[in-house]
């Protein structure tokens, strides 16, 4: 019976510890590329597009440092640099072009 309890405890621990990791990997792999012709410098990005994007670390992806009030986001397989307050786009780079 003691062996069964250890097995159950280890199984539960494995599920609890692996669950968030599996979710994080799945979540970040869902950035398939979608071409957005309208996303150019000066374009006012829709709030829905901006808010579903994920903030990215510009150091990690070798992007240039954003100016004050701007941030890089990953949206539809694109790195988008836009003003946080207004959503005005400064730059768009296809993620597969950045290594």
- Low-confidence residue ranges: 19-30
Oligomer: single chain
CATH superfamily of the largest domain: inner membrane protein cigr
Structure annotation, total helices:
2
Strand order across the biggest sheet?
1-2-3-4
Radius of gyration: 19 Å
The whole-number mean of residue pLDDT values reads: 80
Helix content: 25-40%
Task: Quickly describe the structure.
The chain has helices spanning about 1-30, 45-50, and strands at about 55, 70-75, 80-85, 90-95. By secondary structure, the protein is of the alpha+beta class.
In words, what does this structure look like?
The chain is α+β, with helices and mostly antiparallel strands. It is built from 2 helices and 4 strands; from the N terminus they run ααββββ. The model is unreliable at 19-30 (pLDDT under 50).
Give structural attributes.
2 domains, alpha+beta, 4-stranded antiparallel sheet, Nuclear Transport Factor 2, Chain: A, 20% strand, 2 helices, 99 residues
Explain the layout of strands and helices.
Blueprint (H helix, E strand, L loop, with lengths): L1 H27 L18 H6 L1 E2 L14 E6 L2 E6 L5 E6 L5
């Amino acid at each position: 019976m003691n062996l069964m309890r250890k097995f159950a405890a280890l199984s539960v621990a494995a599920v609890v510890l692996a669950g968030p990791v599996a979710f994080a990997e799945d979540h970040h792999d869902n950035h398939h590329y979608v071409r957005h012709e309208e996303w150019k410098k000066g374009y006012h990005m829709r709030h829905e597009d901006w808010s579903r994007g994920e903030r990215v670390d510009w150091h990690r992806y070798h992007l240039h440092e954003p100016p004050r009030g701007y941030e890089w986001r990953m949206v539809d397989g694109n790195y988008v640099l836009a003003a946080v307050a207004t959503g005005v786009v400064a730059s768009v780079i296809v993620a597969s072009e950045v290594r």
